[in-house]
């Protein structure tokens, strides 16, 4: 992307700044981490919690299975048990996901150290851990939002096309089943502006909670993302992103086993070696 937008940017006085930011939001390594709000507290150096977290880090840096990009991990026993989940975008290869998880957990520990409950989002994956069972929980905090500072030339037209697309994607993702809740597609607004969008819930959420999460995320379209040509809404249970350039590859999406599993809890089919995924 970028090259087709150059004429527009050239007319802008802050060319270098705009271009740098635009490029950054689409291509460069991206990272955000946040501590859970309602004070979950900090752990201390050499505590059992830290050692259990180190166990999680080593599990996550060393995943052998793919599991459609989602992992449910835990380490240790109460009261210092650490629960973790990791989610990779639905169009990424097992290797890309592994690299992303390792990058994200490494950076999380560096940038948001000592938190008992932290969420981190990077270019195309999310890692979170907590001192409580977070599996199948719809969580709204901590959350953040990151936007491309360029505004749509006609925000109303852009947002209408975008909302239509996101509504469809939200339906598709939330009905995706217990293994993967991901959807991505493109549309064009009236003056032929391409819009690419992707949404994803952690697949442990049921359909209703996924749909709720994505509805919350879409409410940012009139807030943090208002009128922007690109934006990421980052929540602990779902993520939403749109851009005017393509950032996903649907050809790479690994097909789910058929018939698709229902969204009611059921054991995943036996992929090779699930031992690293099912924590306990
Ligand atoms: C936890 O540690 C972080 C990073 O050192 C610090 O910013 C935060 O204030 C601490 N929170 C508490 C409750 O001590
Ligand atoms: C990573 O997994 C390999 C087997 O795939 C194992 O031999 C090694 O001990 C593991 N390393 C860690 C740090 O868990
Ligand atoms: C994980 O990231 C660390 C730090 O960047 C790096 O040293 C290590 O080699 C990576 N491990 C894997 C398995 O990619
Ligand atoms: C939906 O999320 C709420 C809040 O985390 C949770 O209590 C509830 O069990 C979830 N529903 C299902 C069916 O998983
Ligand atoms: C984009 O629009 C917002 C209001 O929606 C405004 O605050 C901001 O200054 C605009 N940014 C640019 C670069 O024009
Ligand atoms: C949304 O789905 C409806 C029904 O399948 C379809 O007619 C419409 O074109 C879709 N809109 C977008 C923007 O994808
Ligand atoms: C837009 O999506 C359609 C499928 O919905 C795909 O066939 C087409 O190649 C996509 N266009 C671009 C530019 O990626
Ligand atoms: C999309 O994914 C397919 C399948 O992995 C790959 O062959 C193709 O090169 C990818 N396309 C792009 C533009 O990365
Ligand atoms: C996910 O991990 C939690 C904590 O170990 C465990 O209670 C739960 O059964 C796991 N769920 C699945 C489906 O593996």
TrEMBL record:
**InterPro entries associated with the record:** GNK2, GNK2_sf
Write out the biased-composition intervals (Pro residues): 257-273
Which residue ranges does the record annotate as region Disordered? 257-280
Stretch forming the signal peptide? 1-25
Domain Gnk2-homologous, residue spans: 31-134, 140-247
What domain of life is recorded for the organism?
A: Eukaryota
Q: Which UniProt keywords apply?
A: Repeat, Signal
Sorted alphabetically, which CDD domains does this protein's record hold? Answer: Gnk2-like
Q: Does the keyword Zinc apply?
A: no
Asked if Protein biosynthesis is a keyword of the record, the answer is no
Q: Pfam family example for this protein?
A: Stress-antifung
Coiled-coil residues:
none
Checking Gene3D superfamilies in the record gives: Gnk2 domain, C-X8-C-X2-C motif (3.30.430.20)
By what name is this protein known? Gnk2-homologous domain-containing protein
User: Which source organism?
Assistant: Corchorus capsularis (Jute)
What lineage is on file? Answer: Eukaryota, Viridiplantae, Streptophyta, Embryophyta, Tracheophyta
């Amino acid at each position: 992307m970028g090259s087709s937008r150059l004429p527009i940017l050239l007319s802008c006085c802050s060319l270098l700044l705009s271009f740098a930011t635009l490029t950054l939001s689409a291509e460069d390594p991206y990272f955000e981490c946040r501590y859970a709000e309602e004070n979950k507290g900090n752990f201390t150096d050499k505590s059992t919690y830290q050692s259990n977290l180190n166990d999680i880090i080593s599990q996550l840096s060393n995943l052998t299975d793919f599991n459609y990009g989602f992992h449910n991990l835990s380490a240790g026993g109460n009261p210092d048990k650490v629960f973790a989940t990791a989610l990779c975008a639905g169009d990424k290869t097992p290797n890309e996901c592994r690299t992303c998880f390792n990058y994200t957990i490494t950076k999380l520990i560096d940038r948001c150290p000592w938190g008992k409950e932290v969420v981190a989002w990077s270019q195309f994956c999310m890692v979170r851990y907590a001192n409580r069972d977070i599996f199948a929980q719809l969580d709204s905090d901590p959350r953040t939002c990151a936007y491309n500072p360029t505004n749509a030339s006609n925000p109303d037209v852009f947002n209408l096309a975008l909302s239509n697309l996101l509504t469809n994607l939200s339906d598709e993702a939330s009905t995706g089943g217990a293994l993967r809740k991901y959807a991505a597609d493109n549309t064009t607004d009236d003056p032929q502006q391409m819009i690419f969008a992707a949404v994803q819930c952690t697949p442990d959420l049921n359909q209703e909670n996924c749909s709720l999460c994505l509805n919350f995320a879409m409410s940012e379209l009139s807030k943090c993302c208002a009128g922007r040509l690109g934006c990421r809404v980052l929540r602990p249970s779902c993520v939403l992103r749109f851009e005017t350039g393509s950032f996903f590859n649907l050809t790479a999406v690994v097909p789910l086993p058929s018939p698709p599993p229902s969204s009611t809890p059921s054991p995943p089919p036996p992929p090779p070696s699930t031992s690293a995924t099912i924590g306990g």
